[in-house]
Each structure stands twice: as C-alpha cells, then as structure tokens.
Design goal:
Distance between the termini: 79 Å
Number of helices: 10
Shape: globular
CATH topology of the largest domain: Rossmann fold
Largest sheet: 6 strands, mixed
Helix content: 25-40%
CATH class of the largest domain: Alpha Beta
Length: about 270
C-alpha cells in the first residue's frame, strides 16, 4: 500500500461522524451525531419516563426532582428541578445530549444550555399525537425500541376520538382550594377530546384557570377528574349529578408514554356514564 493511499484512509477514518438532523418540539433543527448519545441529561419527569420506556434508562446521567418513574429513575443524580438548575451539577454530569421541557425553559436558559456546545432538544407535546411523534423522533435519534411508539399509536387509534359520542363535560381539577383547572393551552384538553369530552372552563390566559366556588356551580358537569393528588375537601360544592373520578395525575399531566394509560382510564370511566 502506498503512503499516499494509507494517508487517505487514515484521513477518512479520523473524520468526525456525520450528523443527522431532527426537529424538536419548538420546530428547531437539532443535529444528532451518527453514533447515538451515551450520556443524556433528561430535565423533566416525562422525558425520563420516555427514555426508560425506550430501553435507554442506562444512558441517563442527570435528571430533575419528581422524576420518579420507573422506580429505577429514583436513583438518578439530580441537577435541580424543571425550573431551576444547578449548572455546576449539570456540567459535572458531562452530558452529550440534553432534553428539556419547553414549558419550563426560558430563552435565556436555553441559550446558556446551547452555549455548552451540547445539542439541546426541547420537548413540548401539545397533543397525544405529538407524544407519539416525539417517541418516534427519540427512537430515531437515540436508537431506542421502535415498538414503543408503535404500541402507543395503536392504543391511541383505539380511543373513541372526538365526536364519537355526545360530548361529556369534564373538569380536570388540579387544585380544589382554590379550584383551578388547566387552560386550553395544555394538552390534557386533547386527551379529553379523544374520550369525547370537553372542559367547560378551558380559558386562554396562562396555563391554569382559577375558578370561584360560585362559578363552579354555573355549569353542568358529567365528571370531575381529580388531578390534585389529594382527596377533595368535604366542603367543595359541585353541580348536582357530578361524578368524581380519581386517576393518578402523573398518567394525565405528564406528556410521556404512560399518558395513553391515563386516557384509557378516563375513557373507561366516561363509558360507565352512558
């Protein structure tokens, strides 16, 4: 072999791996190396759930408070919470890919994360279909189990869907004192729609809608979905005939792979009202 040919081969072998691009939840184009990242900082509970579901839990080197599922996730190093990070702890984890939740990241924080030179993926699914899409994107980027997204999609397709039945009026209550629900910005309203339900108090200003005790009595409710993590207070007055359903809030408000289970439980409870 000539020295020239040997030099060309060595040059090719030393070239960096070509990067492919994907689009994150904010529509940003993210470059992902051909070789999947091995040290991932997943800075939201639903992202940790997604990575473990894809069989990639062993690659997570840092996460945030409340990332508690599956149980193995409870042993992961913490670098703050979804809204406040320890930059020193994050740097010490040496991630080669960072996943953040769009609802918790500010432009300034995103810029600081990007300044580290590590690719940053923003997750912000606003519908169940978007959760399925994100699982597919993460699978393609990280090499996870492809059947996870496929199973999620099949279960999503099996839900009644919007317009399948006369719309139930369902109030997803995240706090009883004071009464508060989620605004139409939150993907939980898409979850309701897949069960043939609507939120009578969707609101548009901000992520949550605060309700007065009087306003709560002004509409007919078929079902109150208690997402407050605690039993409703005995003095909470509800419209006559309202059925109360308790479903694990994490199955409803976290836009990860388990949200389809929450949707199935809600659809089943509504089917009992027919």
């Amino acid at each position: 072999m000539s020295r020239v040919l040997a030099g060309l081969i060595l040059t090719v072998l030393c070239l960096p791996a070509q990067a492919s691009a994907l689009v994150d939840g904010w529509g940003r184009s993210i470059e992902v190396p051909t070789h999947p990242p091995l040290r991932i900082a997943a800075l939201a509970p639903h992202l940790v759930e997604s990575l473990f579901a894809l069989g990639l839990g062993d690659r997570v080197v840092a996460t945030v408070s409340f990332a508690d599922h599956p149980p193995a996730a409870q042993d992961l190093p913490r670098v703050g919470d979804a809204f406040a990070l320890s930059w020193e702890a994050l740097a010490a984890a040496r991630p080669d890919w960072i996943l953040v939740w769009g609802a918790a990241v500010t432009p300034a924080r995103l810029a600081r994360l990007e300044a580290s030179g590590v690719p940053v993926y923003v997750s912000e699914p606003r519908s169940l279909a978007a959760v399925a899409t994100e699982l597919k994107v993460l699978t393609a980027a990280l090499g996870g189990a492809a059947d996870v997204a496929e199973r999620f999609q099949r279960r999503l397709d099996a839900l009644p869907g919007p317009g399948a039945v006369d719309a139930y009026r369902v109030l997803p209550l995240i706090s009883a004192a004071p009464p508060m629900t989620l605004s139409e910005e939150h993907f939980v309203n898409d979850l309701l729609a897949h069960c043939g339900a609507t939120n009578p108090f969707p609101g548009t200003a901000g992520p949550v809608v605060r309700l007065s005790a009087e306003r709560l009595l002004t509409v007919h409710l078929d079902l109150l979905l208690n997402l407050s993590s605690v039993p409703l207070p005995a003095n909470l007055r509800l419209p006559a005939g309202t059925v109360v359903a308790d479903i694990d809030p994490d199955l409803v408000v976290r836009p990860g792979p388990r949200v389809i289970e929450g949707a199935e439980q809600l659809c089943a409870r509504l089917a009992e009202l027919r």
